[in-house]
Each structure stands twice: as structure tokens, then as C-alpha cells.
Known about the structure:
Number of helices: 12
Structural class: alpha/beta
CATH superfamily of the largest domain: Medium-chain alcohol dehydrogenases, catalytic domain
Bound molecules: nicotinamide-adenine-dinucleotide, zinc ion
Largest sheet: 7 strands, mixed
Number of strands: 18
CATH architecture of the largest domain: Alpha-Beta Complex
Amino acid sequence: MSTAAQAAICYGHDHPFAIEPVTLDTPRADEILVRIHACGICHTDMAARDRQLPTPLPMVLGHEGAGVVEAVGTGVTHVKPGDRVIMSFNSCGHCPSCEIDKPTYCYNFVPENWIGTRADGSPTTHQDDKPVNANFFGQSSFATHALAHARNVVKVPESAAAVPFSTLAPLGCGLMTGSGAVLRSMNVRAGMPIAIFGTGAVGIAAVMAAKIAGANPIIAVDVHDSRLALASEMGATHTINGRSEDAFAKIKELCPQGLSYAFDTTGINTLIQQAFDLLAPLGTLGIVGASSPTDNLTFNESSFMGGGKRVIGILGGDSDLFGFLPDLIEHHLAGRFPHDRLIKTFPFDAINEAFQAGESGSVVKPVLVMPG
Ligand SMILES: NC(=O)c1ccc[n+]([C@@H]2O[C@H](COP(=O)([O-])OP(=O)(O)OC[C@H]3O[C@@H](n4cnc5c(N)ncnc54)[C@H](O)[C@@H]3O)[C@@H](O)[C@H]2O)c1
Ligand SMILES: [Zn+2]
Ligand SMILES: [Zn+2]
């Protein structure tokens, strides 16, 4: 039986989102119908709206959904109706990356997440019998309901029964990426210096994770003083405004032997190259920021080789979802990951204001709360 839902349809950059009625398919064997309670807004929703991703428009976006399971397909065993869940990206489960529990690098990432239909080309969502592009990150959670998949729905542990959905929802993308980059991809070592460039949701998650890892010093760089102040409260030991001409000289002064870790969330080519030049022997430069598809990076080869340096692209913080998301929730419950301080909630029908607040920089993590 199909499910009637309300979904915010994205028509592109120059049009507001419009909340319209849609119907969702009955879950197939490996699918899960979730009643959405909250959904975070991530920079990547904006990238899809602005046609920087290979996603078709109009489309139902939203990829940080949390809610309650309403129905499951016959093959789903890890969640049942009534369970509280969070959602993340989807993956195929059978490619060389999925086989080694690295689903963020799924060989089938695009068809599983970005083509507007299931990977087999069938639509999940309709409007007046016409297909609507959805299945964004295997969910499309800017809606009252989402049809998700066994591989991207994670049960919220009992220990977090009192944590509101608006706090749980944004863990599924930006916060998981910043913290996973530090704790998993770069595996930051205690006592070693890290600089984090850009302190939006991803960068501040990295600051909190660097504190958990025991990095020292933790240097945060941004162009907004308000974000730097927040980064200090969340664990940065030093903050530097990236607009100042001597920003890189200041980092060198703080770490004369070089940085063990540099983490870029800005995607700014020249900044990434300067960050490479600050690396200590065995230093790692981790890159998550979206950049222009035509950008290339240039490094000095002998410094790269002679210093045993590593430059790594990072997707989703190398998260395996079923292991790392519950870990993050435990860090939150223990007070080590107070990401709720980045969140401002907006009612679902204020989605356009919520996007505006995220883009102006006034809110680090806008989260939509669905009616009821
Ligand atoms: N690779 C992944 O898996 C993944 C996942 C989520 C997000 N992302 C990408 O990561 C990036 C960061 O995401 P976000 O949600 O934190 O975005 P954001 O826009 O909130 O954060 C970027 C920050 O960089 C700062 N900045 C801009 N210019 C700077 C400069 N010259 N020096 C220092 N700081 C500067 C901005 O002020 C801002 O605070 C985005 O490009 C997003 O698309 C990647
Ligand atoms: Zn795969
Ligand atoms: Zn995202």
C-alpha cells in the first residue's frame, strides 16, 4: 500500500522549496518506510539545489533524516515498526569498498544516492501518478515520510531514548564526516598538533573529535569571528581569522616543527596547498571541502616523498554507519560531543528561511522539525 506524504520539492536555486503532496511506494524487501520527525540541512543539499551534483531537478532533497519506522520490507531484520532511527547515505553492499566496510567509497554511490530513482531506475515517489525525483542519499527526508533502505537506516540505541530527533538527525552527514575524518580517516594521535580550516558543521565536528582524540594544539581557522568563538568553546586551543595576511605564519609560530594533521573543509585550492606546506614529517592533509570540478592541486614532490606525507580525500569520514553512528551518540551522551549547541530548529514549512540561515552563516546547523 502506498503512503501519502508531504514533501518539499526543490525546483532549483531561483525558486523557493514548495511543500506538495506525494505518494511513496510500498517498501520492497530491503526497504524501510520512516515517518520523519526531523531533518538537518547540509551544504550538500545546497550543492544539489545549485546543480553542482549530478542530481536531477525537481527533486525531494534532505539527507539527514531521523524518525520512527512505520513499515519494513520482508527482508529487513535489524529494525521494526516503532523503532527510532537515523538515516545516512546508501551503498550497494557488494562492491570492493562495501566488502571491506568502507561504504562511503561505494563503487555504486551515484546510482544508490543521486539519480532520483532506485539504483535500478524505478521511481520511489509519485505525484498524481507521475514519477517525482527522490531517493536522495537513499532517503529524501525533506518530507513527512521517507522510503529508505536496510543499509542506510540505523537504530538509535536505548541509551539515547531521551535525545530529541532534532539532535539525532544531523549526525547522519556533516557531523559524522568531520568527526570521522579525525577519528577514523586520519586517526589523529594524542598530543600531536592539528589545524582545521573552516569551522562550519564539518569543521566544528572535527574540533570536538580532535579534543576527544587528545590532539594538541587544536588550531581552528575561519573568516567568521562568531564561528571561531564557538570553535573555542568546543575545544579549539587557538583560533586564527583566515582573513589576516599572516594566518599561515601564525600557525608556523604555534607549531614550528610543523602540523601532524591539517584538515580542510573550505575546498579552497590555494589554502589547501599552503596547508600542505605546513605539514611535519609524517603529516597528513585530509580534504573534505567541495571544490570546483576543474581544480587541481600542486605539491612539492620531494617534500611529499621525503617527509612521508599523506594527502587523503575523505568522504563521510570513512564511517561504517552501524559502528560509528552509535559511537558518536555515546560521545554525545557522555558530553564529549555537544553538537546540539550548533543546532537551530525551524518548522518544516519554514524550510526556505532555514536554508537562508545556513547560507548566511548565522546558523551552523539548521534542522527542520516535521509537523506532529
Ligand atoms: N566529503 C564529505 O563527505 C562531505 C560531507 C559533508 C559536507 N562536505 C563538504 O564540506 C564542506 C564544509 O561543510 P560545512 O557544512 O561545514 O560548510 P560551511 O560552509 O558551513 O563551512 C565552511 C567554512 O569555511 C569557512 N571559510 C571560508 N573561507 C575560508 C578561508 N579562506 N579560511 C578559513 N575558513 C574559510 C566558512 O566561513 C565556513 O565557516 C562543504 O564544502 C561541504 O559540501 C563534504
Ligand atoms: Zn558498494
Ligand atoms: Zn551532507
